[in-house]
Amino acid sequence: MQKGFRWKLILILVVLSVSIWYAHPLEKTINLGLDLQGGMHLVLGVDTEKAVESTVSRNLSDIKEVLVQKNIQAEAVKEGNRIVIKANVKEDEKKIKDTIGNEYPSLDVKASDNRIELSMTNKEINNIKEHAVLQALETIRNRIDEFGVAEPTIQKQSESQILVQLPGIKDIERAKKLIGKTALLEFKIVDDEGDLNKALKGEMPQGDIIAYEKKIDKESGKAERIPFLLKDKTLMTGDGISNAQVSFNCGDKTPPCIALTFNPQGARLFERVTSENVNKRLAIVLDGNIHSAPMINEKISGGRALITGSFSDTEAMDVAIVLRAGALPAPVQILEDRTVGPSLGNDSIKKGVSSAIIGGILVVIFMVIYYKLSGIIANVALALNIVILLGALAGLGATLTLPGIAGIILTIGMAVDANVLIYERIREEMRNGRTPRSAVDMGFSKAFITIFDSNLTTLITAVVLYLFGTGPVKGFAVTLTIGIIASMFTAVFVSRFIFDLILSRKELKKISI
């Protein structure tokens, strides 16, 4: 065997071996999309108005603290998406406007009749809404990654909507709860000096709220809601958390519990909060529900805390996931909910595979009848093309969808089309009186530019489809891209190698083509 043949044969064998290695067994190595194995399809709507409202509330809380620090006597309240400040002393109006101008330059200030109105610009409101959707997108993606779903589709669908597709998901209700949970963690002081009974009757102390702790009776299994009177001011949120893990080392509380680890900034804040509130109870509130309210006996340093409560193992795990992934910036609502059953997936797979097999058989028969021995060479190259395609899909961890199977079928046609172009060129050269060796050389040489140009334009189209398309379209683009590259290799390189190998062994006067 000539030296040139040897390295070509080694390359072909290496590519074939690697492809078979990755592709076997197919059912375990290639991820199937939502349309093939079933799963969950959700369209979520992000309540961006709530994000704006939350920003206004935070600004109001900050402004109140700033006014106290500046010794300005004024009353600040929220009216819609505006903050209204009324100075108790007329002379403080200018001081308020100067303070707000310096501390909050992004707010529009309007003053009239002892009334100062603060509002955000339309640009700022739009930025808040856009950021809320992007943050919700990232938070949901982090939660699903923690949940362990292979190849999910999570993407922005419109200004305030997010598309979520989870192939192969089994516990659909749990996934919905995990995705939609706001996960707002707050630390508030329990107002033990206030009168809870009066508060429950409507006589609420100023600056207080009522929240409930849910407890499960071990004997009856019934849930009991225990009211607490809390200071409305949130001393700390979950923004300072760096990690949250399920723990069974819960002290004198019933396991499981959730062990929190704070980042350096959160650790410092938690230490300050506990040092300033010794001998008070600190309520740990998640999404408006109290999970525990332990007594602060001393300053707590070290950046660690526990959330205890009536958790099941699964609930504790899910709460830990959402705390690690972060809180949603605004509530999300399920606008569209579709479940694709596995029976539909199996039916789709059978039809798709049947289409590919029938199409492949027809192409193989046609090539053998029309091009004889050369048709067999084209079929060998075609088989290698399919093996490379499946191996690449498995090796890259790509998701195979029904449109992806359509891409495979199209690839079969394109691979054969390349061989047809080459063979017709060879036939033309042989009709012009060239020898088989010369006809093959000229046929491959002249057809290459045409094949390269057509495949390059199709490849560019496939890349654009992948970059700008959604789930199913991307599946089609992936298989088409890999198929084009594989067909260039098999039709031009492998077929040429087989022809050269045959012609090198024997001086043929005629080619079976």
Draw up the topology in text.
Elements: H1 3-23, H2 26-29, E1 31-32, H3 34-37, E2 39-46, H4 48-69, E3 74-79, E4 82-87, H5 92-103, E5 107-112, E6 115-120, H6 122-147, E7 153-156, E8 161-167, H7 172-180, E9 185-189, H8 196-200, E10 208-216, E11 223-231, E12 236-237, E13 241-247, E14 257-262, H9 264-276, E15 282-286, E16 289-292, E17 304-307, H10 313-325, E18 332-340, H11 342-395, E19 399-400, H12 402-431, H13 436-468, H14 471-505
Parallel strand pairs: 1-19, 10-16
Antiparallel strand pairs: 2-8, 2-18, 3-4, 4-6, 5-6, 7-8, 9-12, 9-15, 10-11, 13-14, 14-17, 15-16
Question: How would you describe this structure to a colleague?
Answer:
With 513 residues, this protein is of the alpha+beta class. The protein folds into 3 domains: 3-38 and 341-505, Multidrug efflux transporter AcrB transmembrane domain (Multidrug efflux transporter AcrB transmembrane fold), CATH 1.20.1640; 49-125, Hypothetical Protein, Haloacid Dehalogenase-like Hydrolase, Chain: A, domain 2 (2-Layer Sandwich); 181-338, Gyrase A, domain 2 (2-Layer Sandwich). 55% of the residues lie in helices and 21% in strands. The chain has 14 helices and 19 strands. It has helices at 3-23, 26-29, 34-37, 48-69, 92-103, 122-147, 172-180, 196-200, 264-276, 313-325, 342-395, 402-431, 436-468, 471-505, and strands at residues 31-32, 39-46, 74-79, 82-87, 107-112, 115-120, 153-156, 161-167, 185-189, 208-216, 223-231, 236-237, 241-247, 257-262, 282-286, 289-292, 304-307, 332-340, 399-400. It has a 6-stranded mixed beta sheet. A 4-stranded antiparallel beta sheet has the order 7-8-2-18. Strands 3-4-6-5 form a 4-stranded antiparallel beta sheet. Strand 10 and strand 11 (223-231) form a beta hairpin. It is elongated.
